[in-house]
Amino acid sequence: MTAWEELVAGAEGGPVSRGSMFGSQGLRTGRKFFAIWWQEQLVLKLPPDRQESLAAAGHAVPFEPMGGRRMNGWVVVDGSVDRPSLVEEARAFVAAQGS
Questions:
Q1: How many other CB atoms are there within 10 angstroms of residue 99's CB atom?
Q2: How many Cα atoms are found within 13 Å in the side-chain-facing hemisphere of 23?
Q3: Phi, psi torsion values for 57, nearest 5 degrees
Q4: Which of 40, 41, 43, 36 is nearest to 18 (CA)?
Q5: How many other C-beta atoms can be found within 10 angstroms of the C-beta atom of residue 41?
Q6: 52, CA 20 to 30 Å: which among 21, 63, 64, 81?
Q7: What is the pLDDT of residues 62-91, one digit of tens each?
């Protein structure tokens, strides 16, 4: 099982389902995406303060799907973080924003 499949298995169910975003696999709660597996990297939608703390610790960089064009609210996280925990944080953040 790949790293992405493991994350999906742990998160999928209830309001969480798979979908496609930017031609990549993603996870969404309702209709809003909170995680994407993009070019073998985990991309998450997180609150600004969480993005900043991960970036300051060297564990995340802004998501730029098209070179030089940042996607606001999204970061690419490295493999040294607790990915399942961050996926849950992203799900909760997006779910709290409503539809």
A1: 8
A2: 4
A3: -85, 0
A4: 36
A5: 16
A6: 21
A7: 999 888 888 899 999 999 999 999 999 999
